[in-house]
Amino acid sequence: MPKNDPAPAAYAPLDPAHVSFSRALPEWLISNGVSLAFTSYQTGGLFLVGVDAQHRLAFHQVNVERAMGLWAGPEQIVLATRNQVIRFVNMLPPGETMNGADRHFIPRVAHTTGDIDAHDVTVLGDGRIVVVNTSFSCLSTLSDTHSFRPIWQPPFISRFSHLGSDPVTKSFNRR
Known about the structure:
By secondary structure, the chain is mainly β. The protein has two helices and eleven strands; from the N terminus they run H-E-E-E-E-E-E-E-E-E-E-E-H. Helices cover 7% and strands 35% of the residues. The strands form three sheets. The chain has a four-stranded antiparallel sheet, with no helix packed on it. A four-stranded antiparallel sheet has the order 8-9-10-11, with no helix packed on it.
């Protein structure tokens, strides 16, 4: 598709006016005290769904390239994208609201990983982020000096392999 052509309708940004949902969803979110967060690889979006001050469904979309892995906690969200792992942090103090929302997540840290195909992500108890690094067939943490630091690889994988060589793979030691 030429660069100037608009994206196909299936990949157009989410328009809340064209979203279908059960009439019971806002009440269910309220009664359970939850909001929803999900990603769409195809549209490149992180979607946050909650309820506004008037008890109407509220949508927020963050556009990123190839949104994949997602982890959410009460005060932070971690998102794995095509080339980065981004940590969003709630900026609202306890008990404060903004436009009816009790959380307002903003991106605070982005680690550039390169295209490691991070399909899933979690945060350990000590705060370290671990990603399922499918391009290199391993679990890895983030690194201040390399694309990633491998921490585990299945025993049936004999070596790292990904369109060339990465200096981090030369120092990986199985334990």
